[in-house]
Amino acid sequence: MSRYGHSESIEDKGSCLTLRETRTRSVFFSPLDGSKHHRSPNHLMTTSRIHLLRAFPFLSALFLLCVLGAASGAETESNSKPNIILILADDLGYSDLGCYGSEIETPRLDDLAKNGLRFTQMYNAARCCPSRASLLTGLYQHQAGVGFMVYRDWGPGYEGSLNENGVTLGEALKKAGYTTFTSGKWHAAAHRNPPAHSLPENRGFDRSTVVRTHIDSYWKVLSSCDIYQDGKLLIPGNNDDTTLKNPYQPEKDFYTTEYFTDVALEYIDDTLKEDDKPFFLYLTYNAPHFPLEAPDETIAKYEAKLQDPNWIAEFGDGWDEMRQKKLARQKASKIVPSGQRLPEIHYFNNVSIMPGMQTGTDRNPLPKWKDISKEIKNEARFRRAIYNAQIDNMDENIGRVVDKLKAKGVYENTLILFVSDNGCSGEMGVFGTHFEGGKYDYVEGEWRNGEFTGRGAKEEGAWSHKDKLGGVGYKKSNYEEWKKFSGWATSQGQGWASYSNSPFRKFKKFAHEGGIASPLIVHWPKGFSAKGKVSTQPYFHFVDIMPTLLDAAGATYPENFGDKKRLPLEGVSMLPYLQKPDRKMENRPIFWQHETHAAVRQGKWKLVTDNDRSEPIIWELYDLTNDRSETQDIAEKHPEIIARLSAEWIRFADRAKVKPFPETRNGP
Predict the structure, then answer these.
(1) What is the per-residue pLDDT for 44?
(2) Do 205 and 73 fall into the same domain?
(3) Which residues pair with 564 in a beta bridge?
(4) How far apart are CA 37 and CA 25, in angstroms?
(5) By the number of CB atoms within 10 A of the CB, which of 185, 258, 539, 573 ranks highest?
(6) Model pLDDT for residues 281-317, shown as the tens digit of each residue
(7) What is the tally of structural domains in the chain?
(8) Phi-psi bin for 426: left (phi > 0), alpha (psi -120 to 50), beta?
(9) Is residue 445 part of a domain?
(10) Please, are residues 622 and 385 in contact by the beta-carbon 8 Å criterion?
(11) Confidence at residue 416, expressed as pLDDT on a 0 to 100 scale
(12) Most confident of 197-206, 383-392, 469-478
């Protein structure tokens, strides 16, 4: 099928080839009567001339048809490049989709997985901005200029904005003949002034509707979250407006997931009307990143499920039992190996490295669900219901995109990839921010008899003033109030986040598996025949997405772009593994570094630390083939592996400009 659903002229080209071959044989070698007796050379030449004269009108017409067919075939060939849609979720846990074991209803993504491929070992860069930088450039985030976040420039490796060391997917695919557009959360460049300089139009995208940085509300456009369209300010932020009306479509409520989907559908419509070029859509949702905000009817659906006895019998009650039941489902569907164990989960507090940069450290074990009071359980369930509803709504909107592709006849030759930018967030506190007015968000102390003891300074104390209800906390009973002005940092907390990242440990920002493992769904009916398979052997990183998409598009990476030599790609194409999901992979090293967290993986071995500032670095070592949940640190047993992999990481840190660390620099 062509991009527009019409049948290609394969039969014509095939017929042309057959006729050419038949013509050659019949005119020059085969007698008209079909006999096989030998002829003299002179007789053969005479007969051939006669046959040629008789066949000339037919051959002329046939030649013309072949030429036209070849031209038509070339045109069809140019249009056979796949459309490409890259969908990025925000703070989605590794197992937050139905097809990865979740209780959340995600039928549209599950359907893409059923008719495509699921990969169990895709890695991101642990946090929003670094992951986006790596995803967009095929480089490690420091090489691309976003070693930390996008709010300050600390110099090479930490410029706080995409630099020109590489090219973006927009630039590379536009050069390859694609129409390029993006809708959603950009968050790859922000600090440059004026704001328009930070927008996708400067990095290869023909059209865009984006928030440059973070998004503080699903229902509203708040200050510092202005929406830009095609390089111009479209919706200015306004913290004082408490209405939920959509400034873009006043007749309906504004909700970011639906809005960014509306824009994406318009872009698809426009490009299919205007030209015959393939398109690249980079669709970047802010769901399910906090704040907790979702349509009321979807929240009600999950709140009912979380308390329904039949549902509880199937999925469990609370994060402890639910993790166990999820693990059984994951084993049954081969998302995790049969011998996988669940790790003990610890909660963490944030520790300041320098102004604007914090890291997380482990604290005491997470509270057991059975030890929590009924009242707190009900509030925790309500927060989980909102979180689930955010993912449910995102899935529904992805379904709208798929339906559009089918309606336009381009579904079969559209390559769709779905990933998450990092693991589920453990920000901020065990039960989430603004829970009981911050009562449970403490650095010091431990959980005993249903409450914290030895209370000290509040964890994330900077967020306390954002509780606009007088410090009573954001609860189910006052949800309609904090919904109006946006809860900003209202989150589900580390208890539920540990379930979202199951079967792994730790959270967003960490280099342990819970922070960096992402679901990966790939769907391309015309590109590969494997359907419904779960690929468990190869391991990939966001640096591999650029070479994969270029490979699928038949494009080459521009080593020189804009009169500037660019860094070579760090990744490998996943295309061979789409066509043969069980293909063996070379044990190449891949790397991580964010805040104080660092890791390197090569083959089954992974070296990881929470403190790369220590001298020497105290590394943990895990055998991921047998212990992907990182439950048994075997560093003491393999000093030679520690030495080899740590040397690999140090070489990476030097060439990628990881060091010197930002807190040792004097600024730009």
Answers:
(1) 37
(2) no
(3) 561
(4) 15
(5) 185
(6) 999 999 999 999 999 999 999 999 999 999 999 999 9
(7) 2
(8) alpha
(9) no
(10) no
(11) 99
(12) 383-392
pLDDT digit string (tens) for 57-113?
544 444 444 444 443 333 333 458 999 999 999 999 999 999 999 999 999 999 999
Residue 224 is assigned to a structural domain of this protein: yes
**Cα Dmax for the chain:** 110
Q: Looking at the structure, do residues 201 and 108 belong to the same domain, yes or no?
A: yes
Least confident of 64-68, 174-178, 372-376: 64-68
**CB-CB contact of 204 with 180 (8 Å):** yes
Sign for the pseudo-dihedral over CA of 87, 90, 92, 98 = negative
- Do 148 and 270 share a domain, yes or no? yes
Specify whether 88 is located in the same domain as 68: no
Are 422 and 306 part of one and the same domain?
A: yes
Burial degree of 210 (CB within 10 A; 0-12, 13-18, 19+): buried
My answer on whether 31 and 87 are in the same domain is no
Residues 396, 174: Cα–Cα separation, whole Å:
29
Kindly report, residue by residue over 554-605, the tens digit of the pLDDT.
999 999 998 899 999 999 999 999 999 888 888 999 999 999 999 999 999 9
The gap from C-alpha 526 to its chain's centroid, in whole angstroms, comes to: 22
SS3 665: coil
DSSP 183-247: EEE--SB-SSSSGGGGSGGGGT-SEEEEESS----SSS--TT--EEETTEEEE---SS----B-S
Distance between CA atoms of residues 194 and 162, nearest Å: 15
Task: Using alpha carbons, select from 286, 332, 376, 271 the residue that is nearest to residue 92.
Answer: 286
**Judgement on whether residues 286 and 324 belong to the same structural domain of the protein:** yes
**Which residue is associated with the tokens 């809860």?**
487
Say if 439 falls within a structural domain: no
**Domain span at 287:** 83-428+493-655
Of 78, 107, 126, the residue that ends a domain is 78
In the chain, the N- to C-terminal Cα span, in Å, equals 53
Q: What is the CATH number of the domain that holds 235?
A: 3.40.720.10
